[in-house]
Request: fold
Amino acid sequence: MFHQNLRNHRQRKRKFVICGNNGNSLVEKALTNKGWVISENDDLFHLKWTELKSHIDYDRFQEGKQLANHISSSSCITTKSGLLNTLRSYFGSSALKETSTELKKFFPETYRLSDCREQEKLLNTIGKDELWICKPTNSNQGKGIFLIKGKQELIDYIERRRRTNKSRSTRIVQRYISSPLLLHGRKFDIRAYLLVGSSRPYNVFFHSGYLRLAVNPYDNESDDLTTHLTNQYVQKKHPNYSGFKNDTVWSMEQFQRYLDEEGYTEKCGLKSDWVCTDLHERMKTLAHTIFKSAQTSLVPKIGLFDLYGLDFMLDESFNVWLLEVNTNPALHTHCPVLEDILPNLIDETLSICIELFDKKVAGLKTFPIDSQKQFELIFSAEKDALQNKIEFPIIEKQNGICFINRGSGLSPIQCGKAQKPSKSAPTRRTKPASVPVKKSSPCSDGDVTRNKTLSNDSSLSDKSDTNVDDLSLKDQCSSPSACASDSEAPMHEKCKASNMKTYTVPSPLEVKRGETAPPQIPYKLALIEVAPCPKQNVL
Reply:
């Protein structure tokens, strides 16, 4: 149970706003059951739930006072090209070199038509009769998707784009999974969920969701999109949809029963509980990979959360493929399975996000999370800070400005013991309470300056009244190349005998000369402790 001050905080009537038409009744019911009331003014709210990010004014958003259901920079995974670029960057791949072996295991081969070099490579890759699928990068519900059957169709489409001046419109072409696993002869995919319950600090959850089936039997040669695309928006266009509606959505339990009844567990050597064990763990691992690949691109704030729809597909060999990530997953309850899953999913989503927000604002411990039921925690910044000890340099100099490298989003000063310094370079012992980040004069003169420090409180609020050992960060030397632990960076002769300590500190993105860094996301960083230059001690 929550602390008494948190219960008192919840006794006040809090107001919410809903924009759009996706699952409004589910959100309204969940919030009113918690004692929230609808705001009469769309600009005055404690929580805003909206379909589109454009309905959220992030400049006026009051961090720590309001909640909103979209992280501003989520397009790095919720657009087709954004997801492609993010995964490529995470796995060190690009269209101009061989795709990472790990990425090939779960993400179909994909190219951007708007990039001439990728277009050329695609033309050299596609076979005469191969089936590919073309998608607009920033769309959902199957809009604008069509099939490309062979190289000549691709050439014809590229030529039409050039003639109609659409060559700059962003589209991706993806290799079609031509041997999908079928259920009663019909194609299906899995809609799972990735919940960023809080973005500062990060707490991320996974829900295995449900299956979506096509009405038509699968035919690789068919031109009917209702045969190939399984989302409900497309399937509703089928003339026989009303009669098959309840059979177009399966629960995970139904899926396991089907595998058992059809003998897949014996023929393919699957476990009797394969769906809730191996399949669940594989999707959960991919969900974690998606978040980690995008983490440094997301812009977190206290109160921002997000619910993403993940689309997976299985092939005949039971390999799991990631198709896309959706920023506004459908929340319509038009069949019994969805009536059973979605209301509970939305209620738990809101409960988790509100609980994490209230605990953050009240300064209470995050765990245990009382609202967590069906969602499974796959990443916690606080827990990751205790388990992982990653070292890398924090200082990069560009045009006279110190930039702090961003690491995995962790809470302050919780990563354990620092490395023991070598005997050759005596170090200065400090309390791991806070680490200021300030740039002062070059090391040619002067004493170490003192300055207000960033608090190590997880809220990163302005709590700098506590007096602790506050060290200032100075230039390691007067050399043009800043001293760093990166092996590629040249080091000053006087600073070669450097030692490194590992802390987790609040990491500002930029620190200008003579200014104290504003509090930002906490990240695990390596502080370089360098042998002192003449007349000065340097950390």
Notes: The first strand starts at residue 15 and ends at 19. The chain is about 25% helix and 20% strand.
